[in-house]
Amino acid sequence: MATASAFSYGKEQHLDPSAPTLPGVRTAREAPVMRFMRSEAGKGWLTISPPLLYAVLLLIGPIIVIVANSFWSQDYLTIDRTFTLENYKAALTEPIYRDLLMRSLFVSVTVAFVTVILAYPVAWFVSFHGGRYKGLWLFIITVPFWSGYLLRILSWKVILGYKGVLNSGLLYLGVITEPLSTLIYNVNAVIITLAHSWAAFAILPLFVSLEKLDRSLLEAAADLGDGPVRRFLRITLPLTMPGIIAALMIVMIPTVGDYVTPKLVGGKDGVMIANAIQVQFGKASNWPLGAALAVSTMVIVSLLAGAIVLMLAGIKRLLK
Amino acid sequence: MTALPMIEIKNVDKVFGNFRALDTLNASIGEGEFFSLLGPSGCGKTTLLRMIGGFDEPTSGTILIGGKSMAGIPPNLRPTNMVFQSYAIFPHLNVFENIAYGLKRLRLGREEEESRVSQALAQVELTGLGPRMGNQLSGGQRQRVALARALVMRPKVLLLDEPLSALDKNLREQMQVELRHLQRQIGITFVLVTHDQYEALSMSDRIAVMFSGQIAQIAEPKEIYQNPATRQVADFLGGMNFLTASDVAVNGKGFKAALPGFGAISGHLSGKAISDPAQAIIGIRPERLRIVWEGETADPMISGKVVDRNYFGEVTSLVVAIEGQAEHVSIVETNDFGADDIPVGSDIRITYDPDAFVIMQG
Ligand SMILES: Nc1ncnc2c1ncn2[C@@H]1O[C@H](COP(=O)(O)OP(=O)(O)O)[C@@H](O)[C@H]1O
Ligand SMILES: [Mg+2]
Questions:
Q1: Which residues in chain A have Cβ-Cβ distances shorter than 8 Å to B97?
Q2: A94 with A64, same domain?
């Protein structure tokens, strides 16, 4: 900066009355780029740029490949790179894919709402009644997630299976006379398993938003005549809506694309769109169709997520 | 207070774990009274106010409002409303909705609700601010919204927890006057918590001065200021010179004594009886000692030397060594006559009302 300070005499000092009197700290001659780099925001960008670059490359790269593929076609063993919309036509109109997509959306939305409805009371309890042991409670909640994803799904097989824990228990209690075959290998089993798998991911954002809730607002609501239920509906629920939305999205978006759970506990009726995509990229070896299915799913899920966010924002405005 | 008691606090204790936050409190607050709880931070003012509002229950003792015991009654069922220290404005609602919050449950109908809210907005001079969101308000506006939101419920008792402490000085003084006017106008009981003695003195009908969980004195502002019950109260309500006298003779509500440097003095008892005159402390407020200017004379008149001077704008505080008195005394003079120009080290003469002294048990 010593060079810049040589110019920072005379009139230029008057151009910027807010400039510190120390010469060379900031002068009018400095290039805008340099000035940006020196600003608070600039420093921030500079600091995050390596991981940002890394993340962008890893995120954008595959998406470009997928989107490009979706406009090409499979010509037996080679890829024909002439532009075509045939894949999208197949993805969006063939009944099998439409059904799978609808089922996936149904499963993911149901799982998201079930998970959040079950996670909310847990998060609420830890935040409001965890006292000194909040940290311990959160720790306990994450314990099941130390075991692998597959193990957790398989343990649900043990619970829901034909000769599983649930059936044996019900038989023992005399509630049923022969094992239920409807517990596993259907959509319900997929929903139950996924809701459990994602519970902690829903609890954490809900917990954070409940922690941020100013308790004196609840006292003010009580002071103005509200009992516990009204306090919850008029204060807690609208003010934790960002946490609810985050939890819903965190659960909903990845579950649409889950193919391990449906494969293990979903049976024939539990197949989801990701299983079809997997087949296209694998056995069927039709990358362009798989890509079109993937892109369509991505776009539709984004639209659905947007719609849900708007709906919840609307509900928030109604709660007053 | 001649009015009926609105709030009665009877032998109230509050214990947190093994810490006694409130110790056997007794007080009676009249209908339509402006009552202040004054004391240093941490003395238990908020704890007591929260128990009146129903946010905490006493460990033992009872609180009655309008003659009815409030034991076990939650805040939403008490005839009180609170202005919280943090104001607790609902950030997701606009000003109108904040103020209408408590009215919604009453199902007054749209017109009645709107007219009540507009009236409350006018009362706190926020007309036109209804659509502004709760999280876009300045400190003073938040304070007014919190006030309007409580007043619109037409409570019998309004509880205010340091409502002005977050405001800057000018706004605070303006709001003190406005709050006092408002209370006179609507005539309900106000219980104000504050740690600012001037606020308490200027606004209240009566003040309870609290120290570490106990009430030291309950009296009208003038009485508290002129006749503080204890040295602690005297100290908290603006400065006081504390001196040791000999030959103390207490006689009913008055006393006579010999004070080194001052000679024979007299004065009155403050509140409590003096059990041991030999251990008693004599107090005099700095503004009751006055400078005798050149060319004037006075009786009684004593002389001293200025050892320190502090300038406060409208007044100057002088620390003076008085001949024959071991303790330095402080004097506060208005600056009209040039007290701010008296150099440190100069000799001055002092006069006082011989009856201006108070005596307290040490
Ligand atoms: N919930 C609580 N648990 C434990 N101690 C508390 C609690 N609330 C207040 N106290 C203690 O009680 C004392 C009085 O507090 P408070 O009434 O807030 O004082 P003030 O309002 O006069 O500043 C303080 O020492 C405070 O630490
Ligand atoms: Mg307090």
A1: 320
A2: no
